[in-house]
């Protein structure tokens, strides 16, 4: 659980001191005003100590040469707690070694050469890290994902979806989920299933657009032995297999017309027939359908049955495009970055401001799925600890453009006008005042205000 700001303020400034130098004198001689160091020597007792006290700053005494084992030990410890930032103390000769340089570059915020002659500088770096950690806690707190049903989102639109999921889960009627590709329709369908009284049964998903008509028929409704050439034995269809559970019909708009009739019968009578069979079977599977096409248009074009449309559209959830869910973009991006970085043991820590700006102004045609792919790729491509727009394959946007308060803009314009009028009139105040349409007294006041002599 993140520490509160008050807790962080009250915390004594304690740093973890990881000493691999084999020379206790070095660390016991480390005296820095306002700081207390808790020394550990091998990573075995580290985890326990880290759990006891959430450190924000770590100092590592690195020996002249690191064995493979020691290097692994250091890397393990450095990766144990992402909220702990490290400063290295090392012999300058070590920096000749490229591997050592890489270790420092990838894992440390800063390094200092031994002997530590300038402890004021060192103290400053520790203070800086401590402050940054406080900021990170605040930011983490602000970016805390609202995670429900394993879904992340905090935009007004997405909170509305959480609400709709809870509502539609309590009834048995069909649900139609609409939204562009990759917005999370299947995820929402699973969430409805998990909250519904059907959660004890299976969740069976079928993509109605992925198979040709004959196959989709057999897939959905099953077939009897001998129903067609190659039907050597009976096959249970997906609707039957979803008994007591949920059948998720993705891309319902692509369902061939003939099958629309059978699906309608199932929705009305809760019965199905296997291909080549003459027996009616009942299934109590709940239907959730999803579409990325405009079904009303498909109905008016005669591609989708109107009666089926009304049957399916009893409850509907509209999922907005990612680009319309402003506050979800950064939240989701950080969520996926941390998730994948952890999985891959990556040293990447976050996004540059430019990367956040680029993501926020990008259109995301492939929505969340596209974001996942871009972040996975960026983790592989990134050469630094922060992901750039380039790593994400996005155009760079100037993140520094800031909106200034109107008063500031006005004052700036006024100053420019006064300066240029004075310069045009060769510093003749009467003439400049005339050009500006103000009295000399007013112009003198303005010159005072802007420090113009
Ligand atoms: N809010 C979210 N939080 C976490 N992960 C999400 C969220 N929304 C979508 N995803 C992830 O994005 C990917 C795409 O989601 P999903 O398959 O549900 O989209 P879809 O709308 O059904 O796509 P399609 O129309 O192409 O079938 C999945 O990996 C899903 O886990």
UniProtKB/TrEMBL annotation:
Domain Sigma-54 factor interaction: 151-380
One Pfam family named in its UniProt record: AAA_lid_14
Record's keyword annotation contains Protein biosynthesis: no
Organism superkingdom: Bacteria
Keywords: ATP-binding, Nucleotide-binding, Transcription, Transcription regulation
InterPro entries: AAA+_ATPase (IPR003593), AAA_lid_NorR (IPR058031), Homeodomain-like_sf (IPR009057), HTH_Fis (IPR002197), P-loop_NTPase (IPR027417), Sigma_54_int (IPR002078), Sigma_54_int_dom_ATP-bd_1 (IPR025662), Sigma_54_int_dom_ATP-bd_2 (IPR025943)
Keyword Ribosomal protein: no
Xref: CDD domains: AAA
Name under which the protein is recorded: Sigma 54-interacting transcriptional regulator
Protein species of origin: Pseudomonas aestuarii
């Amino acid at each position: 659980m993140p520490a509160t700001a008050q807790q962080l303020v009250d915390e004594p400034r304690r740093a973890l001191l990881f000493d691999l130098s084999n020379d206790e004198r070095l660390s016991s001689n480390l005296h820095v005003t306002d700081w207390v160091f808790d020394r550990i020597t091998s990573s075995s007792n580290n985890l326990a100590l880290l759990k006891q006290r959430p450190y924000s700053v770590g100092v590592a005494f690195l020996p002249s040469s690191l064995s493979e084992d020691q290097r692994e030990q250091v890397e393990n410890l450095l990766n144990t707690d992402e909220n702990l930032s490290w400063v290295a103390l090392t012999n300058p000769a070590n920096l000749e070694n490229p591997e050592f340089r890489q270790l420092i570059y990838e894992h440390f915020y800063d390094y200092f050469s031994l002997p530590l002659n300038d402890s004021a500088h060192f103290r400053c770096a520790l203070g800086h890290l401590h402050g940054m950690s406080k900021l990170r806690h605040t930011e983490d707190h602000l970016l805390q994902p609202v995670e429900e049903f394993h879904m992340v989102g905090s935009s007004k639109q997405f909170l509305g979806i959480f609400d709709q999921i809870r509502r539609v889960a309590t009834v048995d009627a069909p649900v139609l989920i609409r939204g562009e590709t990759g917005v999370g329709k299947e995820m929402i369908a699973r969430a409805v299933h998990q909250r519904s009284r059907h959660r004890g049964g299976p969740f069976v998903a079928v993509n109605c657009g992925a198979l040709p008509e004959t196959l989709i028929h057999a897939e959905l409704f099953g077939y009897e032995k001998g129903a067609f050439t190659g039907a050597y034995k009976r096959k249970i269809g997906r609707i039957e297999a979803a008994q007591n559970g949920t059948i998720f019909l993705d891309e319902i708009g692509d369902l061939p017309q003939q099958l629309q009739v059978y699906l309608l019968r199932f929705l009305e009578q809760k019965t199905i027939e296997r291909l080549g069979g003459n027996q009616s079977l009942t299934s109590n599977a709940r239907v959730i359908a999803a579409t990325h096409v405009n079904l009303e248009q498909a109905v008016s074009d005669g591609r989708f049955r109107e009666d089926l449309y009304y049957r399916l559209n009893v409850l509907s959830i509209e999922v907005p495009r990612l680009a319309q869910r402003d506050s979800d973009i950064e939240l989701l991006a950080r969520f996926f970055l941390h998730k994948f970085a952890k999985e891959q043991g990556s040293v990447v820590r976050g996004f540059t401001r430019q990367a956040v700006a680029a993501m926020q102004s990008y259109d995301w045609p492939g929505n969340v799925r596209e974001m996942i792919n871009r972040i996975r790729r960026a983790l592989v491509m990134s050469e630094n600890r922060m992901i750039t727009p380039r790593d994400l394959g996005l155009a760079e946007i100037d993140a520094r453009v800031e909106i200034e308060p109107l008063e500031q803009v006005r004052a700036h314009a006024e100053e420019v006008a006064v300066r240029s009028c004075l310069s045009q009139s060769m510093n003749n105040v009467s003439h400049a005042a005339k050009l500006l349409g103000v009295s000399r007294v007013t112009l003198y006041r303005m010159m005072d205000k802007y420090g113009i002599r």
